[in-house]
Structure formats: C-alpha cells, structure tokens
C-alpha cells in the first residue's frame, strides 16, 4: 500500500533532530489513525509530544485517540492544551466542542462552536453543530435558525431537510413541516422515516389514496416489515374498500400467521362483512393470544396491548444517517506529504461529511 511506503518514509526522519522527529511521528500517527490502527496512532502521537510538547497537531492527534477510546476527560485536556499552544487551532476547538457535547456540557460546547464559527463562518459542520446543540438544549427556534443557514449551503441534503420538518412539527407548524418533509422526500425518496411521516400525515388529512402510495413504497423498501402492509389495508378500510382490505389481510396472515394484529383486523372485518371465516380466525386469534400470554408470563412481562399503527411516527425525531459526529482528524504536516486538495462546499454524492476540517 502507498500508506505503508509513507510510514516507512516518515520513520526515516526519526533519526534527525527532535523537531523533525516530532513532525514525522505526528504524520505517522495521522496515517495510522486513518487506517483505524488507534494503538499505533496513539503511540506515535505520544512520541511526537515527547519530542515537541508545543506541537498543537500532535496534541490534537493524542486527544483524538483518547476520544476514540471514550476517555473524554483526558482528551479534553489535550484539546485545551492544543488551543493554549495555538489559539485558533480549528481542529482542537471543533473536537473540544464534540467532547463537551458528548459529556452533556452543552453550554460549553456551544461556546466552542460559536468561537469556531467566527474563525470559519462557512463551515457546514460547525453550523450543523450549532443547530444540533441548540436543539438538544430545547431551543428549537434557535436550532431552526442555524439549520436554515445550513440549508442555503446544502439545499439538497435530505437529512437536514427532514430534521427541519421534525422541528417545525414539534413547533406546531404543520405547513412548514410538510414542506420540508416533502423536500426531503424529493431528494431521497427511500428515507423511511420521511415516508412514514408523509403517509400518516395523509391519513390524518383523510387523503387515503396518497397515503397508500407512501405505505406501499415503504413496504417495497422494508418488505419484511409487516406494519406497512397493515397500514395499506387500514387505508382500504377507511376508503370502504372492504374486499381489498380483506384480501390484503388474508395475504398478510398467510405469510405471517403469528401476527396477532393482522388476526385482530381479520376477525373484525369478517364479522362486519358477515363472513363465515370469522369463526376460524377467532379461534386462531384466541389460540395465538393464549400462547402470547403464556410467553409473557414466563418472561415476567405485562401483556402487550394493540396500538393503532397511525398512533406513532409523527412526533419522533428522524434518525440522522450522516456521520456528522465524526472527529475531524488533524492534517499531517504538509512539508512531508502532498497537500490534500482543498475541499469545496459539496458534501459529495454519498452524503458523508468529510472527517477533515480545513486547516
């Protein structure tokens, strides 16, 4: 590998003076970190610090290794020391903010990222952190302010759009929530939490045909998840398409005979339609309920009660699929390796935030 050659090259500098050794060791630490070899990354970070205690990059690398090992208090001390050496060390300030955030010290984390925002005001990662920390504190309107700034820079990011939809929903602004969830769906039509929200929203608006479209799409994305087909069948019932609902329930039951919710629906709809199958499904339901009661009793758990499938899914925050929380690793000394190309404002087709902040 090219990285192996680079490590060998950097090791050759260890025989030089201490400053040269510190830089070489720091770069080797960086390369090992990229390879997820955190033991060696920490070993060479220690070596770099031993040879040059005032190397802010080495202090950041050491702090990052401790962060990965969940030694947050120790990592915090190294990031603070790096800032003491270099007051505007972007990586140290950013990672310090992450440490405070991880420890639940949100005010301190907010101060770190606010300071960083004055240094790199166009950083999407920093703007996201400012929004997210305000959200964690409970300041939703302030969080939305930062997310609105962020969306001007990454207007097609479905994750941020869905998060804004959730916050507007939490604020009671259904119109704006619908707008941002629709925008999120437009850019990522396979995002399951957004599809679920839109489907349930249309049910509440009694637009059942549109809801069916969303739930059927969800079923295609998660074919093993029974609830999406149950929701489709429920929409059919509300549209008075009882035979279509019955056919779908029967198909679900055939493929999932242990699904107690489906059997309950079958019993209800067969009774309403006067179907003779009502008696057979009632027997199956009672048998399944007894089995479930026995299983719950053995496990010491209370019996589960049936919940409307539309009762949940509207008020839960969307899971963030992008790795916004990844530690930005200190760049190696440019004197010894080719400088990394300057990153633009695009987060890339795969939606991943780059782990390296610009230096």
What does this structure look like?
This protein is mainly alpha-helical and 359 residues long. Helices cover 67% and strands 0% of the residues. The protein has 17 helices and no strands. The chain has helices spanning 2-11, 18-34, 38-51, 56-68, 72-85, 90-103, 106-119, 124-137, 140-153, 158-170, 174-187, 192-204, 208-221, 226-238, 242-255, 260-273, 277-299. Helix 6 (90-103) runs antiparallel to helix 7 (106-119) and helix 13 packs antiparallel against helix 14. The chain is elongated, with a radius of gyration of 27 Å. 39% of the residues are buried.
Give me some keywords for this one:
17 helices; 359 residues; mainly alpha; 0% strand
How much helical structure, as a percent, in the residues?
55-70%
Are there runs of 5+ residues with pLDDT below 50, and where?
331-359
**Count of helical regions:** 17
Structural class, judged by helices and strands?
mainly alpha
**Main β sheet profile:** none
User: Gap between N and C termini, in Å?
Assistant: 26 Å
Count all strands and give the number: 0
Question: Based on CA inertia axes, which overall geometry fits?
Answer: elongated
> What is the string of SSEs from the N terminus onward?
HHHHHHHHHHHHHHHHH
Strand coverage percent = under 5%
How large, in whole angstroms, is the Cα Rg? 27 Å
Mean pLDDT: 82
């Amino acid at each position: 590998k090219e990285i192996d050659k680079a490590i060998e090259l950097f090791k050759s500098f260890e025989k030089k003076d201490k400053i040269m050794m510190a830089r070489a060791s720091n770069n080797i630490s960086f390369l090992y970190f990229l390879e997820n070899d955190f033991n060696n990354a920490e070993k060479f970070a220690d070596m770099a610090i031993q040879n040059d205690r005032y190397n802010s990059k080495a202090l950041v690398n050491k702090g990052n290794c401790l962060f990965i090992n969940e030694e947050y208090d120790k990592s915090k001390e190294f990031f603070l020391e790096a800032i003491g050496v270099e007051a505007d060390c972007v990586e140290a300030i950013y990672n310090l903010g992450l440490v405070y955030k991880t420890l639940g010290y949100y005010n301190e984390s907010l101060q770190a990222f606010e300071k960083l925002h004055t240094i790199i005001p166009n950083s999407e990662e920093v703007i996201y952190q400012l929004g997210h920390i305000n959200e964690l504190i409970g300041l939703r309107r302030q969080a939305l302010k930062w997310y609105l700034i962020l969306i001007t820079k990454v207007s097609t990011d479905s994750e941020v759009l869905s998060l804004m939809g959730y916050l507007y929903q939490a604020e009671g602004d259904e119109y704006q929530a619908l707008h941002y969830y629709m925008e999120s769906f437009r850019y990522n039509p396979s995002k399951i939490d957004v599809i679920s929200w839109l489907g349930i929203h249309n049910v509440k608006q009694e637009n059942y045909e549109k809801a069916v479209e969303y739930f059927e799409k969800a079923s295609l994305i998660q074919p093993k998840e029974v609830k999406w087909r149950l929701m489709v069948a429920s929409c059919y019932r509300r549209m008075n398409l009882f035979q279509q609902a019955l056919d779908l329930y029967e198909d679900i039951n055939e493929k999932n005979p242990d699904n107690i919710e489906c059997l309950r629906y079958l019993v209800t709809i067969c009774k309403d339609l006067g179907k003779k199958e009502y008696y057979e499904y009632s027997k199956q339901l009672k048998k399944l309920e007894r089995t479930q009661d026995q299983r719950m009793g053995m496990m010491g758990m209370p019996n589960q009660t049936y919940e409307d499938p539309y009762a949940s899914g509207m008020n839960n925050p969307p899971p963030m699929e992008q790795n916004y929380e990844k530690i930005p690793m200190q760049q190696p000394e440019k004197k010894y390796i080719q400088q990394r190309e300057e990153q633009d404002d695009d987060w890339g087709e795969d939606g991943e935030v780059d782990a390296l902040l610009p230096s």
